[in-house]
Design goal:
220 residues, Arc Repressor Mutant, subunit A, 9 helices, SH3 type barrels, six-stranded antiparallel beta sheet, two-stranded antiparallel sheet, alpha+beta
Length: 220
């Protein structure tokens, strides 16, 4: 049985998904939830109906939003997920991809006491390893822009890898291996074609698809 104030993991998963889709500036519709969670549209429709009955979501003109109660659930789950990712990468020294998968489990079982202990151990971090803000932290958003908007010759610092990319198969492994991670410095070297750009990071040339460059956030 869940502790007081907690909900079934399925409700938590959906609240988290809605929160993250909104965070990535995407319209929150059932088709996107189905795609993100890799479930059928009828399953999403049934779950959203149940969540509306529990006063966790509102549905207006086909778009889904969290109620105040749903928002509280999302904040708690996202916070625990991102703190868990920090712990797994920073303390245990494991990969981004593994941290993302494991944090998806930890987010539903961490107690308040363990969450706060992890936060203290990490020194009150403001972002997950991918640069996404930890709810409840002192995060201040930087003046970031899309990597793909930069001209040739522009230097940049990677700021954030949005959740949308985290859920793209093989993306976290690629970004970590290419060292295209928050804090890394690079320069735009060329645009070989309309669907690709090349950047230099740590003396290596990295080809980046338009899909990636339109989502990776950087500062200059």
């Amino acid at each position: 049985m869940p502790n007081p104030g907690e909900h079934h993991p399925a409700f938590e998963e959906y609240c988290e998904c809605i929160f993250e889709l909104r965070e990535d500036d995407l319209d929150v519709i059932q088709a996107r939830i189905a795609e993100r969670l890799k479930v059928s549209r009828p399953s999403v429709s049934e779950m959203i109906k149940r969540m509306a009955e529990e006063s966790l979501v509102l549905v207006q003109a086909g778009k889904i939003s969290l109620t105040e109660q749903g928002e509280l659930i999302a904040h708690r789950v996202v916070r625990r997920h991102r703190l868990a990712e920090r712990f797994i990468t920073d303390i245990l020294g494991l990969s981004w991809a593994l941290a993302h998968r494991e944090a998806g489990r930890w987010e539903h079982v961490l107690s308040d006491e363990v969450e706060e202990a992890i936060n203290r151990l990490l020194g009150n971090p403001t972002t997950c390893p991918h640069g996404n803000p930890i709810p409840g932290s002192s995060y201040t958003p930087p003046l970031a822009q899309r990597l793909g908007s930069l001209p040739v010759g522009q230097e940049f610092t990677v700021s954030r890898i949005p959740e949308e990319l985290e859920f793209t198969a093989g993306m976290l492994e690629f970004l970590e291996q290419a060292h295209l991670i928050p804090g890394s410095h690079g320069i735009v070297s060329t645009y070989p074609d309309p669907n690709c750009m090349t950047v230099d990071i740590d003396g290596k040339s990295i080809d980046i698809t338009k899909y990636m460059s339109e989502r990776i956030l950087v500062t200059i």
